Each structure stands twice: as structure tokens, then as C-alpha cells.
Amino acid sequence: MSDSVETAAVAATVPPGQSGTVVRSTVLRRLFKNPLGIVAMAILLVIALLAILAPVLAPFEENYSNIAKTLAAPDSVNILGTDSAGRDVWSRLLFGAQLTLLSALLCAGVAIAIGLPAGLIAGYYAGKFEAVSNWVVSILMSLPGLIVLLTIRAAFGPSVWISMIAFGILISPSYFRLTRTAVQSVRNELYVDAARVSGLSDWSIIARHIFSVVRAPIIIQTAAIAGVAIAIQSGLEFLGLGDPSKATWGVMLSEGFKNVYLTPTLLFWPAFAMALTIGALVLLGNAIRDALEDGEKIKHRRKHLSAATATNNRTTAAPAAGRPSRKSVAVGESGSGKSQTAFSILGLLPDNARIVAGSIQFDGNYTVAPGDERVNQGRLSKLRGKRISYIPQEPMSNLDPAFTIGYQLVTPMVRVLGISKDEARKRALKLLTDVGITNPERTFSAYPHEVSGGMAQRVLIAGAISCEPDLVIADEPTTALDVTVQADVLDLLRELQQRLNIGVILVTHNFGVVADLCDRVAVMQNGRLVEEGSVRDILRNPKEQYTRTLLASMLEGKTPMSMLVSSQKEPVA
Amino acid sequence: MIRFIAKRLGSGLVVLFVVSAITFFLLYMSSGSIARNILGDQATAEQVALKEAELGLDQPLVARYFSWVLDALGGNLGASWFTSEPVANSLASRIPVTMTMVFAAMILIAICAALIGVTAAVKRGWVDRVVQVGAIIGDSVPGFVIGVILVTVLAIQLGLFPATSTISPESGPDAWVYSMSLPVIALLVNGVTGGAQQIRSAVIKQLERDYVRTLRSRGIGEREILFKHVLRSAAPAGLTVLSLQLIGMLGGVVIIEQIFALPGMGPLAVTATGQSDLPVVMGVVMYTVVVVIVVNLLVDILNGWLNPKVRVS
């Protein structure tokens, strides 16, 4: 049998992986570059100006009524016509804008005044306060806003301000939750610890470090809440439960609806004003969010993985068993494209990845032919599981928490090998024993959250070899494990590799692992293949500067502080 | 599982108690002029005092609350101050109208939002863009404005549907469905646009999880990954979205019923609020909270069934 694995020159653009921090000063600039954001801000600005200038701009008082001229069509005096009491629609629309915007601001203000401090305290100090406020939040969140406002109206009479204060209280959990989550995520950051150690008071830490984190989300939330407040206040007024002496869009809508058979246009203007205002708020919120997210994206430039892994990772037939048994390894610093290369062999790159050059062969056949822009899933899905399999880096996140370990081992065998469930169950238990799990029955019926990280990694290794593949790709299989378990897992991998005679591509940044486990090495940097060869050659006589630097950066066997000197002599290329 | 349900049920009852107390005190705190309001300006001081005694308003607030609780436990929610009809009876005759509408809308929202949201998450492309734009439009136009537009355009101007929907289910399923179409549509538009958007995000989030990649590497087909693993993990988020929408809809339906002149909870609540008919308002709030607690309990149970981790803790 001459199974061979050839991995040649893969290249792909890879999307952002981890999230970075946001450079705030550029968010505003980016917001102004977003046409929708500009339009939304312009609309809100115009509406706000119209509202502020209403007393000047409006030709009539909000309640001035001309009984002789009811439900009139637009003319030069009443540019939008009059309502059933002969009141000027345009004037009422302007005064309505005033009240609508003010009430939305009041509501958001009340909600922030309650939710923000409560969220800060709950997030920063946790403890009893958090437990109690969580409970209050769960109650507030389970009350329908309109029903609460009806109750408030029944208790306190018709007042825009009282109902908006009440709604502000009711909706304050949205600020509370947002703030608490943000604070919890920074509370244990090192720079907050550092601030605490350096003697800053809690409040100055909150003001300086934590407030800056929640500022942007709060603006986004406020845009959304102002919109909801406008909608619910108008709804209340539409029901005829608002203050009849005030001109608001809700009152106008209700008035228009009563005369819908006579003058349907009366409905149009308040509905239009409402949709325009709320729409602008929604768009503004989206634009700010996009501006923030773009900020994160910019931090990860598009990455070109050119000429990735082992250009010639040919594993020829092993002498003993006639099956491939070579162990190749890809090493390199973090972000050098090792894992993405491994995924491209499996055809599991993210959706937005594009192959810009190169090809991959497995067993003499192309899985990615030269010129392919995307991985051919049809070709690869036949190989995955059966011929090529995968051991991930982080054991816990790679098991589906909703299914038992047994289910997750049995199903692939049933699907790929076409054996019965009973048969697969027997093999799964055998596999669990093989990977060194002492009580396979128990692990088989356990859910992933019930086992340890090291155990989960053994389960994943069992899964990878369950369908007897020819090639196993192990992506830093020990990085997420603690040191004692690491050695066990590496021993297990070596033992399985020898016993089952399978080819292994190991991704690692650890030269100890390389020397320990592998035959061939490919050194990678910035998505490029730097050097490739047998382990002995590479470790003893590295040809490339980068490989030497990488080897020099190892701590093992070094006299203390010597690294500093050597890295000065050999600056990183 | 039974302990889990009992615990949830217990906390639901506590919420019911707390909300009833707050509502009661809020409503009756400022009840100084209630008897005067009912009797009108013509009534003498003696008549007002007599009415107050009749309504029990001369008792201390706390005593009144506990007698209300005792009555309520026996199924007696008091009587309307204006029509003297027992509140429990008014609720019983109106809840079916409202709840059939809410549940019809909710089922349609669940189906449509799930279908559209999952399609947008899996296919991306134009479906996804339509969902995004739809969510913005849905967020911008309040449900009752949609109702008003539907009535004006489809019922009054084009005459395609009846403008009011006061048809009882007895007059035949066809007529009923026909007359209920507009109110239900008005109720569900926001739910579908918002729900589809949120379900889309939930599914995308699951599709990007590590275990999905590992399942693919094990040779499991895309269809099985989507239907068995991804949807199952995204379901709790979807359920939460839907339950929040149902809670919001209990308020929204009040306005929709007013627009379509439906004899549900809406007109009862609006009239009682306008008149400060406090026993009725109290009854409406209680019914709402009970519905919310039942819905939340169902969601918790479903989540516990979907997610083994919740069940354990």
C-alpha cells in the first residue's frame, strides 16, 4: 500500500480570530463614514431642531381650534390641513415632537439613573446586592410594559411624565444587565487589579476603567430604548389614556383613527413622524454598533497564508505494517497559520476564507486542486472521519454539551462505518479503555460537563481514531491541558500512532514535543513555510534564521538570563 | 426534574405575591377620591362616607390587601365598581378571545421566525440581508401602527377584510379565521421580524462553535449537524426570545383589540383604567402575571429538557 499524503502550498485568507480592544477615537470617525449613520443622525437632528423651535415655527398654538374649518384639506394657512376640532396638523406635529422627544429622554434618563449604578455595584461587588437585584430584574422583565402603564394610569391619572418615569424603571434592567456583564468582564482584568494594588479607590477605578467600557453599549441601548419609549407612550395615548390637553403623536394618531373614514391622511403624518424617529434611532444604534465592530476587525488584518504547511509532507508506506506511519509536525509562533493550515487539509476553514493559491493532495488525489477558490466539500466530506480525522486544541468546547459522550462517539461510527449501534457501542467502550479511561461505562454515559479536561481530550482522541483513519491531524492537542496531563496525552498519542500505524500531523509551538514525537518538521511564520525537513536536520542544523531564533527562544537547558543576550545577537527576522 | 419544576413553580408564586402586593398598594395608595369619583360631584359627604364603607375603603390598606388575597385565593377577585359585575366573570368571558389570538400569533411567529432565522443563518446571502432590513423596519414601526395601517388600507380602502372582528368562533371556522386575520397579522409582524433576526444570531453563534467543526471532522453530515446539534443548542436562546415576545404581546394585544373592536381583555382593561375601576385593573394585572409565570415555567422546563447542564444545577 502506498498511501501518501502530500500537502502542498495552501493559501487562504483568514478572517479575524480573536477579538481585540477598541480604539475609541476612531469609532466616531468611522460612524461619520457610514452613510446610514449620517442619515440617521441628520434626521434626528432635524426632528430635534423642529421640536426645540416648535414655538417659533408653529403657525398656531397646539390647541388653537378653528371650529369653522374642521378636517380641512391642506392649504396655504394649514399646510397639512386641520383635524376634527379644526386644529392645525403641522403645528400639533411640531409640539408633538417636543413632547415625544422629551418623554423618550426622560424614560431613558430614569432607566440609566437606576440601571447603571445598580449594574456597576452588582458587577463590581457582586454578593448579596447582585442576588437581590437579579431577582428584582427577573420580576421587572416579566411584566408587560403596557399593562404596567395602564396600572400606573389608573393609580396616578393621565400624565406623560409619570408614565415615562414608570416605564424608565420598568426598562432599567436592560442597562443593569449590560453594565453588570461589562463590569464583570473587566473586574478581574490585570489592569484593574494593578489599579487596586496601586491604591486607587474603588470609585476612581470604576470611573476610569469601567465606565469607559460601558459607555458605547449604553449609547446603543439608549437609542433602542428611546424608540421603545416613543412607541409605548404613543400606544397609551392612542388608547385615549394620555393627557388630552397635550398634542402628541399618539393623541393625533388616535384622533386620525376616529376619522379614518373621512380623512385618512390625518393618520399618515403622526404615523410617519413616529416611524421616521424610531427608525432613525434604530439605524443610529446599528451604525454605532457597526462602527465598534469594525474597530475590532481592523485589528486583525487579513492574513494571507501562502505556501503553508509542509510543502512536501509525503508520508510513504511504513516498512512494518505497510501503512503510513509518519509523524509530521508544523511548528511556529502563535498566529503563524499552523492551525489554519491544519483546517485547510480537513476542508474546515471558516466560510469567508478564500484559497488564493496552492493545492492539497491526499493519497495521490487532489482535495484542493490548483486554482480552486474554495475547498471542494464533496471530495473532502468522503474523507473526513473515515480517512482523515482531527484532534482539537481545546477539549471542552469541542464536545457538544447537550449530548452524552457515548452518543458523540457512537454516531460517527454508525454514519461513517455503517455498523450497528450496538456494535458501535462495544467499539466505543473498547476505545475509551484504549485511551486510558479507567471507567469507560461511566464516561460513556456522562455529559461533557461531567468529565475533566484531560478526560475530555482522551475522549476526543478516541473519537479521532474511532473510524480507523489513515491520517490524524492534532491541533496543539496538549496546549489547553495542565502539565502532568500533557505528558500522559503525548504518551497516549505516541503509543496509538505506533500501534495503529497512522500518519499524524501535529501542530505545536513546542520543540520538546517535536523532538519527542515526530519524524519531519515544517517551520511556519506569518502563514509562510520557512523550512521543512527531518527532525534531526532541523533541530541540529537549522538553515533559516527564523528557525534558529525559534530554537533559541526555548527555555529548556538554558542558563538563566542567557536568552536576553542571544535574542539581542539574533534579532527576530 | 420534578424538584426543578417545583422550585420554579415556588419562585413563580413568590413573584405573583410580590407583584400583587406592589400593584395593590400602588393602586389603592391614592384612593382618597375614589368614592367621590364613582358617585359624582352631586353626592353629599354622607353618601361618600357610606360608599367608602361599602367598598371597604375606610379599612387600613394592609388589612384590605390581606382580605383581597384571601378572597382571591377563593377565586373571588371582587366586583367592578361601575358595573358590579364580578371581576372573575368578566375575565373568564374575555380571556378566551384574547388568548386564542395571542396563541395563534405566537405559533405563527415561532414557525415563521424559526424558518426565516435559520435559513438566513445557514444560507446567508440575500435571505440574510432581507432579514436584517426587515428587522430594522419591524423595529421602527410599532405593532399598533401596523394594525392601523392594515385596517385603513386593507379593510377600509380596499374592503378586503372586515374592519372590526367581533365574530365569535361559533359562526364557523372560515368566518372566524377571515375576521381574525388582520388582528393576528398586526400582532405578529414585529414578532416575526425581531424573532427571525435574533434566532439568526443564535444559530450563527452555534454554527461557529468549536464542536461543530469537530463534528464535521468526524464525518457527520451538515444536515444532521444543523438539525440535531446546532438547533438544539440554539433553541434555549430562541425560546427566551419567543417568551419575551409573548410577554410584550400581552400588552400589545390590548391596543390591537381596541383597533379591531374585539371583545377581549383590551377594552375591559382600557375602560377600567380610564375610570380607575381598581378591582378590574387589579384583576387584569393578576391574569397577566399568571400567564407570564406559566409561560416562563414552560420555557424553563423545555430548557431543562434541552440542556442537561441546567437540569443538574
SSE inventory with pairings:
The complex is a heterodimer of chains A (573) and B (313).
Chain A: E1 5-14, H1 25-33, H2 35-52, H3 54-57, H4 89-125, H5 127-141, H6 145-156, H7 160-187, H8 190-197, H9 202-238, H10 249-258, H11 265-299, E2 303-305, E3 327-332, H12 338-346, E4 354-362, E5 365-368, H13 377-381, E6 388-391, H14 405-417, H15 421-434, H16 440-444, H17 453-465, E7 471-475, H18 483-500, E8 503-508, H19 511-517, E9 520-525, E10 528-534, H20 535-540, H21 545-552, H22 562-569
Parallel strand pairs in A: 3-8, 3-9, 6-7, 7-8
Antiparallel strand pairs in A: 1-2, 1-4, 4-5, 9-10
Helix pairs in contact in A: 1-11, 2-4, 2-11, 4-5, 4-7, 4-9, 5-7, 6-7, 7-9, 9-10, 9-11, 10-11, 14-15, 15-17, 17-18
Chain B: H1 2-29, H2 34-39, H3 45-55, H4 61-73, H5 87-123, H6 125-140, H7 143-157, H8 173-207, H9 210-217, H10 222-259, H11 265-275, H12 278-306, H13 308-312
Helix pairs in contact in B: 1-12, 5-6, 5-8, 5-10, 6-8, 7-8, 7-10, 8-10, 10-11, 10-12, 11-12
Walk me through the structure:
The complex is a heterodimer of chains A (573) and B (313). Chain A has 573 residues and is of the alpha/beta class. Chain A contains 22 helices and ten strands. Mean pLDDT of chain A is 78; it is low at 1-23, 297-325 and 562-573. By secondary structure, chain B is mainly α. The longest helix of chain B is centred in the last third of the chain and has 38 residues, at 222-259. Chain B is globular. In chain B, 42% of the residues are buried. Classes of the chains: A alpha/beta (573), B mainly alpha (313). The interface between A and B is large, with 72 and 72 residues.
